[in-house]
Design a protein that fits this description.
The structure holds two protein chains of two kinds. Chain A is an alpha+beta fold. Chain A has two domains: about 220 residues, Metalloenzyme, LuxS/M16 peptidase-like (Cytochrome Bc1 Complex, Chain A, domain 1, 2-Layer Sandwich), CATH 3.30.830; about 180 residues, Cytochrome Bc1 Complex, Chain A, domain 1 (2-Layer Sandwich), CATH 3.30.830.10. Helices cover about 40% and strands about 20% of the residues of chain A. Chain A has a seven-stranded mixed sheet, sandwiched between helices. Chain A has a five-stranded mixed sheet with strand order 10-14-11-13-12, sandwiched between helices. Chain A has a two-stranded antiparallel ribbon with strand order 5-6. In chain A, helix 3 packs parallel to helix 8, helix 9 crosses helix 15 and helix 12 packs antiparallel against helix 14. The longest helix of chain A is centred in the last third of the chain and has 18 residues. Chain B is an alpha+beta fold. Chain B folds into two domains: about 200 residues, Cytochrome Bc1 Complex, Chain A, domain 1 (2-Layer Sandwich), CATH 3.30.830; about 180 residues, Metalloenzyme, LuxS/M16 peptidase-like (Cytochrome Bc1 Complex, Chain A, domain 1), CATH 3.30.830. Helices cover about 40% and strands about 20% of the residues of chain B. In chain B, the strands form two sheets. In chain B, strands 1-2-6-3-5-4 form a six-stranded mixed sheet, sandwiched between helices. Chain B has a five-stranded mixed sheet with strand order 7-11-8-10-9, with helices on both faces. In chain B, strand 4 and strand 5 form a beta hairpin. The longest helix of chain B has 19 residues. The chains are: A alpha+beta, B alpha+beta. At the A-B interface, helix 2, strand 8, helix 4, helix 10 and helix 12 of A face helix 2, helix 4, helix 12 and helix 13 of B.
Chain lengths: ~425, ~425
């Protein structure tokens, strides 16, 4: 261990395949000397370990005119590290049977691995070297950029994904509104030296989070993490504050069979008590096939196949996205019903609706807690967004502490804001 | 500690210990319904699902899409439960639940905390005997038509829907799962009711459980709930496929990219070489680190170039997909096919084989972490073969699949019989 780690939280209970329900699951958190925050939750009955490294760069930290820097940097990181070239590094991971994942998004970029517990000591150095010793071979740069350009191009053939990009570009006035893919002009303007220089500003341990969960023990995790990540240095750039644009309605003309309808409005900040209350309301609105939106828009009227509302978080800022896809002649009615349901929420929810929403949220908490990947993702999100990792018990008791009156008082006092509405399809809506 | 088993004299880790505490349960009720379960004492939840051995391949052209439409109608309830009741009660027990339809299977499933399993089983059981109200049928028809419209906007899906029937060349595995706007519009409730009577016989159903449950209580409850179900004989035609080779396609001016579907003959579920076929497809066309990845995606020539192997009853297929820029589509397709032929001519290296095996094994292990993740492979595996395989046994079979078996498959030169269908903007 490089120096003295700062440890919060007790050691996880380790036993022989105890049922998860009866296990005290305390995440262990340490901060390495270099500032990397590491969080681990032991799930000793599992054969695998999942690891997720979240770093504070994304399209929001791209320089103006060079949009797409984070996307290409994220791809380039995965093309050779340390002694291994791109092929060699990939082969080394695959020799261990590692499943890889990760994405570059608006405020963060992630690299994730899942592997059998027996491969811990071999797999973690391969994850670490991508950020501690990326090769940044010039020969790999053009391919990484070309791939990013192609993905951007593919967006035109994926109307739902494109809608979300168009919606957030209009909803968020700050750099978080930029597409995670970048822009064609920005990608074209990138140079290998420019992206290498960008890495010196954003690719640092201080501000990053490494979350792990699964069937290992803390001593092994601590040893492997410290040895692999202890040498990571580098700087990070602050994420700009979020700003929201004035509410408006837009239509984007696109040739498609369905009209894509997107709504966005600010909502409770992630991790706060308010967000616990708000998410119960959102559960009534759209948590399941018995929820209000699904019932009113799909079950009763047959207007759509897909309709939903879900919350999303940026650092210190929460927002809600609404989505529906329908054929053009039914788009106006779909949007009206959707908006009416948002308004109706202010009137409060019934005791039965409240109970169902709460049961659903508590139940899915247990289910996510059975998966190493979902647990690592929860820990990473908590550490990254809130600066601390909540236990499953804490989340559960905070949900259980909310009663119907609290929720209805909250909804009466906080009517949902008028949403930004963006539609994408062959013709503009009358309402839009 | 768990490690992958290996075969031969490799330096890999030793054979894994048997799974701790898993128990396989099995019974067949008097009405012909089979129930199986994999009890896991470490599970915090339980998943259950009815696997109906019916799908698009069992449809005649006049009812194209009925299996999938019926899957939606099952959620509309019976004489005691309305559609709203069904969704409400699923929510009351905090279930994660859904259903899906494939060419040969329709599956209804949910996961709950163990104490709520009786209600989940009650709901799933009554859904197998839906009442098919006319007003529900009419509203749901609109939903299905919206679903068809949605997929029309997804060319990566559409390219397969357009080409599957052509490749299969009259074999029912080429039937469309969704059906067409025309076939769904014309479909009548009575046709659906007849299809249900013929296909949802208890002997054609498998109830599968995974996770934490009380086996005796499950069997008692399901025996009572399904006591009135009457068994009728159910058959499935298994004609020999005479699949098409060559190239075809069509243009769609609104597209920005060229989307390509690739088909080549594979092996069926009853063929023990299916494990080798799965490893082979992964080594050639996994999304990372495969032959196609290095030839096409790594170089930025295509943003997707993949290959899968799918085993069905009696037949199998290697399914490939490419997404690329229209101006280089021809060159990319040629490179894609040349990559397949090169593997066919020269085989794979031992390293490539082992990497693909290990990636598949890790993926199987991860999916089995949750009862809901485990349910699908447990039920579909048993339904296809009548054989229970623990995850460790499946992993052992994947790790035990031999490169020589793949070479044997390649010696039949499946990629010489590839069918390539292109959907892109006009030239």
């Amino acid at each position: 261990m490089s120096g003295n780690p700062v440890r919060t939280g007790a050691s996880a209970a380790v036993g022989a395949s105890p049922p998860p329900e009866t296990t005290t699951r305390e995440p262990i958190v340490v901060t390495l000397d270099n500032g990397l925050r590491v969080v681990y939750e032991s799930m000793p009955w599992l054969p695998a370990v999942s690891a997720s490294l979240v770093m504070p760069f994304g399209s929001a930290t791209d320089p103006v005119g060079l949009e797409g820097t984070a996307n290409v940097l994220h791809e380039w990181l995965q093309r050779g590290a340390g002694e291994l070239d791109s092929r060699g590094h990939s082969d080394a991971l695959e020799d261990l049977g590692v499943r890889r994942g990760g994405a570059s998004s608006r405020e963060s970029s992630s690299l994730s691995l899942s592997f059998l517990e027996s491969e811990l000591d071999a797999a973690l150095p391969l994850l670490a070297s991508m950020v501690t010793a990326p090769r940044f071979d010039t020969s790999e740069f053009e391919s990484a950029r070309e791939l990013a350009l192609q993905e951007l191009d593919s967006l035109d053939d994926a109307p739902t994904q494109r809608l979300f990009d168009e919606l957030l570009a209009r909803f968020l006035a700050s750099p978080q509104g930029r597409s995670a893919y970048g822009t064609a002009a920005g990608l074209a303007a990138l140079t290998p030296d420019g992206v290498r220089e960008a890495a010196t500003r954003v690719l640092g341990a201080d501000g990053a989070v490494l979350a792990l969960a699964g069937g290992s023990d803390w001593a092994s995790i601590e040893r492997a993490v410290t040895s692999a990540f202890g040498s990571w240095r580098g700087a990070t750039t602050p994420i700009p504050p979020v700003a929201v644009a004035p509410v408006a309605r837009h239509h984007v003309v696109a040739e498609s069979s369905q009209v894509q309808i997107g709504l966005a409005f600010p909502s409770a900040e992630p991790g706060t008590d308010e967000s616990i209350v708000y998410n119960l309301a959102l559960g009534v609105l759209s948590g399941s096939m018995g929820s209000r939106l699904f019932t009113e828009v799909r079950e009763k009227r047959g207007l759509v196949y897909s309709v939903s509302a879900f919350s999303r978080g940026l650092r210190g800022f929460g927002y809600t996205i609404g989505y529906a896809g329908t054929t053009p002649e039914r788009a106006d009615e779909t949007l009206s019903v959707f908006l009416a349901e948002l308004e109706r929420l202010t009137e409060g929810v019934s005791a039965d609706e409240f109970d169902r929403a709460r049961t659903g949220i508590l139940s899915s908490l247990v289910m996510q807690g059975e998966s190493s990947g979902a647990t690592a993702a929860r820990l990473a999100s908590d550490m990254y967004m809130l600066g601390r990792a909540r236990t499953l018990d804490e989340i559960r008791s905070r949900i259980e502490a909310v009663d119907l009156a609290t929720l209805n008082d909250y909804l009466a006092a906080n009517p949902l804001p008028t949403p930004m509405v963006v539609t994408l399809g062959p013709g503009a809506l009358e309402l839009a | 500690m768990k490690t992958f088993p290996t075969v031969g004299g490799g330096a890999g880790p030793a054979l894994a210990a048997p799974p701790s505490g898993l128990r396989f349960d099995h019974t067949v009720l008097a009405n012909g319904l089979t129930i199986i379960g994999e009890h896991n004492p470490a599970a915090a939840t339980v998943a259950a699902g009815f696997f109906v051995n019916t799908g698009a391949r069992d449809e005649t052209p006049d009812v194209s899409g009925v299996s999938h439409f019926l899957e939606h109608m099952a959620f509309k309830g019976n004489d005691q439960y309305s559609a709203e009741d069904i969704n409400r009660v699923f929510d009351e027990i905090g279930a994660q639940y859904n259903a899906y339809t494939s060419h040969e299977r329709t599956v209804y499933y949910g996961a709950v905390l163990p104490g709520r399993l009786p209600t989940l089983l009650e709901l799933l059981s009554l859904m197998m005997r839906p009442v098919l109200r006319q007003e529900d049928f009419d509203v749901e028809k609109k939903v299905i038509l919206e679903e068809i419209a949605m997929y029309q906007d997804r060319p990566a899906f559409q390219v397969f829907d357009l080409s599957s029937e052509l490749y299969w060349n009259g074999h029912p595995l080429g039937n469309s799962i969704l059906g067409s706007t025309e076939s769904i519009t014309a479909l009548r409730k009575e046709q659906m009711a007849a299809y249900h009577r013929e296909r949802y016989s208890p002997g054609n159903l498998l109830l599968t459980l995974a996770g934490a449950y009380d086996w005796d209580a499950v069997v008692d409850q399901v025996t009572l709930a399904t006591a009135e179900w009457v068994q009728v004989p159910v058959t499935r035609t298994r004609p020999t496929a005479a699949t098409l080779a060559g190239t075809d396609g069509q243009s769609d001016a609104k597209l920005n990219r060229t989307h390509v579907a690739v088909y080549a003959p594979g092996v069926g579920k009853d063929d023990p070489r299916r494990y080798a076929a799965a490893v082979l497809a992964d080594a050639i066309g996994d999304s990372g680190g495969s032959r196609l990845y290095w030839e096409l995606v790594d170089k930025g020539l295509a943003d997707n170039a993949s290959l899968d192997h799918e085993s069905s009853e009696g037949e199998g297929v290697f399914n490939g997909y490419i997404s690329t820029a229209p101006e280089r589509a021809q060159a990319v397709i040629e490179l894609y096919l040349a990559t397949l032929r090169r593997v066919q001519d020269e085989g794979l290296t031992a390293d490539e084989w082992r990497r693909a095996q290990r990636k598949l094994a890790t993926g199987l292990t991860l999916r089995a972490e949750t009862p809901l993740g485990r349910l699908s492979s447990l039920g579909s595996g048993y339904q296809a073969t009548g054989e229970y395989l623990s995850v460790d046994e499946v992993v052992a079979r994947v790790m035990g699949a031999e490169l020589a078996t793949a070479q044997e498959l390649l010696a039949e030169r499946p990629f010489d019989r590839a069918y390539v269908y292109t959907l892109g903007p006009a030239d």
